[in-house]
Amino acid sequence: MGNRESSSIMNDASDPNAAAQAQAERAAAALFARDRASQALGMRITGVRPGWARVVMRVRADMVNGHDVCHGGLVFALGDSAFAFACNSHNDSTVAAAASIDFLAAAREGDELTAEASELWRTRRNGLYEIVVTNQRGERIALFRGRSYRIDGQVVG
């Protein structure tokens, strides 16, 4: 008799979802390791999968503007970083071609902001991503939309 258990279990190499997930994780880790801006702002990747990423950043005292709220450019930077990790998760080197943001509410010092990026559409060269930025209470702070463009090369060789 054959071993039924071994014939019914797929290993990661034969599971396309597992392979794509592993590739997304490797690409995000490699990109983050070279991303000094995201590191300097205290960002952390808390989740990644093909076409999707979640990045978290705590609003520090040096991120607050003259109105005592988080500087909009830093909220944009958080959205942009989540966008970058999502669109590079397929391991194709990809850059932003355009981006816009709508600010919905103020973020304050001590808030933990989460940017969740989702792929809406992707072709061989272009992609469209929606990024929702929320605070620790789940309140929406901003909506960011990015259009990506694939350049030559891969994130991880």
Q: Which properties best describe this structure?
A:
single chain, 157 residues, alpha+beta, 6-stranded antiparallel β-sheet, 6 strands, 29% helix, disordered N terminus
In percent terms, what proportion of residues is strand? 35-45%
Task: Assign an overall shape.
Answer: globular
- What number is the mean pLDDT? 93
Number of strands: 6
Radius of gyration: 18 Å
Tally of alpha and pi helices: 4
Secondary-structure content class: alpha+beta
Report the biggest beta sheet as strand number plus sense, adding barrel if it closes: 6 strands, antiparallel
Low-confidence stretches: 1-11
Q: Record the strand order, biggest sheet.
A: 1-2-4-5-6-3
Percent of residues in helices comes to 25-40%
Instruction: Write the H/E string, N to C.
Output: HHHEEHEEEE
Euclidean distance between termini CA atoms = 43 Å
